[in-house]
Amino acid sequence: MKSQILLVVAAALVPFSLADAPKLNQYSSLDDCRNDKNILYHAAPVSGRCYNLDDATAAFFWNTGGMLNPRVFTGKDCNGIEDPLSTEGRCIDKGKYNSYRCS
Asked: What is the per-residue pLDDT across 18-39, written as a single tens digit (0 to 9) for each?
């Protein structure tokens, strides 16, 4: 009986243990981002914290890791115009964006 309970608990926890960790990678080009090479900076974002994108960054990749509401901002320190991102991470041209936050 105890082993059955342990199996049920272990099976219930599998989706949580396999979930992707939050990720914010910065690259010098969109090509580097798409090929996941030459990472300039890597962060494991924490919910609610603002992350400034480096001036050398031309593209970035995010993965919410289960957090919702990813946002980019035109200003540093999550100021300026705010735009939503998809909760499904992918590479994006940095363009006018200078900071990122996920909640």
From this structure: 457 899 999 999 999 999 999 9
The answer to whether residues 101 and 78 touch, using CB atoms and an 8 Å cutoff, is: yes
Q: In the chain, what are the domains? A: 20-101 (2.60.20)
Rounded Cα–Cα distance for residues 72 and 100 (Å): 4
Measured between alpha carbons, how far is 43 from 25 in angstroms, rounded to an integer?
6
- In 3D space, the residue among 37, 66, 92, 28 whose CA is nearest the CA of residue 100 turns out to be 92
Above 50 in pLDDT, residue 6?
Answer: no
Contact call for residues 62 and 21 (beta carbons, < 8 A) = no
Task: Put residue 68 in one of left, alpha, beta given phi > 0 → left and psi -120 to 50 → alpha.
Answer: beta
Question: What is this structure's pTM?
Answer: 0.78
84 touches 70 (CB < 8 A): yes
